[in-house]
Backbone:
């Protein structure tokens, strides 16, 4: 449980870091606000059009008598909007990170610089970084979707489906949320998705301690906007712990002998 507490500590320290560096907090807000406006507009449009979509999808019910026609289409309208809201919640972080790639990479670099030691750079053009981020986000969302289908099915199991399964669901969400956020710092260290997942699996409790409470907070997108800058800063601190850079930074300051010990030494480990 010590690792879980340490992971939560990185989340808190990330929020403290941006609170002490107000300029970077403001910069980190920009992508989240852009994404929030786009998502809010999409959800408003869905809210207005969900009933028409329900009517279009159920032409067979046009001749049904009241109240069955209204009950069917009202239920379908609610389900359509609920599904849209669910998609918004699970994709908000990935889209925000994609929109804010230059902002968050600069923020992550500044955290590395402030904490001391090596400040890795990917050495890749922006379009390449955006492509890698988008590709990896899709891969993560596919994994999350597969877990969601499995957990949905297990949700019908008596007792466990109403207690254990939701807990597992929060853990899965938090784990992959932490992966997406640490990717900002780890991609700069030349780590591909496969290697990042191996790294995170080696410290599961640390990762869950960071990701689970953040995932619970991110259920409210408006809250997510204001937590995102600190989440990126905290994820950078977490990434430094995962690759052993926190220890290495002290050694570097003492004698400069450990600069090459990090897995970030080459930005050319990316591959398609």
Residues:
């Amino acid at each position: 449980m010590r690792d879980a507490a340490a992971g939560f500590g990185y989340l808190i320290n990330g929020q403290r870091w941006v609170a002490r560096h107000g300029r970077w907090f403001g910069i980190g807000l920009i992508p989240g606000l852009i994404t929030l406006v786009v998502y809010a507009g999409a959800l408003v449009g869905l809210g207005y059009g969900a009933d028409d979509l329900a009517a279009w999808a159920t032409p067979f019910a046009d001749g049904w008598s009241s109240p069955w026609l209204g009950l069917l289409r009202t239920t379908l309208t609610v389900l359509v909007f609920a599904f849209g809201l669910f998609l918004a919640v699970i994709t908000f972080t990935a889209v925000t990170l994609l929109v804010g790639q230059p902002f968050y990479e600069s923020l992550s670099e500044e955290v590395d610089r402030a904490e001391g030691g090596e400040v890795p750079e990917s050495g890749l053009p922006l379009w390449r970084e955006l492509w890698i981020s988008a590709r990896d986000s899709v891969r993560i969302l596919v994994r999350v979707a597969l877990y969601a289908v499995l957990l949905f099915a297990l949700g019908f199991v008596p007792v466990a489906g109403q207690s254990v399964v939701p807990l597992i669901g929060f853990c899965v969400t938090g784990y992959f949320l932490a992966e997406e956020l640490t990717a900002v710092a780890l991609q700069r260290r030349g780590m591909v998705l496969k290697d990042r997942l191996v790294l995170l699996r080696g410290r599961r409790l640390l990762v869950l301690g960071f990701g689970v409470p953040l995932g619970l907070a991110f259920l409210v997108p408006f809250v997510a906007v204001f937590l995102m800058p600190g989440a990126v800063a905290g994820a950078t601190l977490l990434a430094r712990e995962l690759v052993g850079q926190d220890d290495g930074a002290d050694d570097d300051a003492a004698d400069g002998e450990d600069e090459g010990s990090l897995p970030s030494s080459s930005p050319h480990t990316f591959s398609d």
